[in-house]
Amino acid sequence: MVEPVGQEGREHIADSSKQAEQVKEAFNDAVDDLVHKSKRALKRGRRTAEDLAEDWTGRVRKYPLSSVTGGIVTGLLVGGLIGWLIGRSR
Questions:
Q1: Which sequence spans correspond to the domains of the chain?
Q2: pLDDT tens for residues 12-31?
Q3: Which of 35, 43, 48, 67 suits a disulfide with 60, CB 3.0-4.6 Å?
């Protein structure tokens, strides 16, 4: 037989509801904080990348021969390393 829910049961349900609301608010606050921090980090990364691109553009304009030579040497080294790794794995 089902007994009616007493005052104690109602209080327990109200407390549980309050705790669930507090957990929900804490979770929403944490997610909002994470989104805000992620956006800030993305903006900071974008600015850093733009600064780096500007620095390299200036370097290439100032030292075109050494820049092209450095690019070719880097490409050859990376290509040689990839070829060596592929040949070694067979």
A1: 7-63
A2: 888 888 898 999 999 999 99
A3: 67
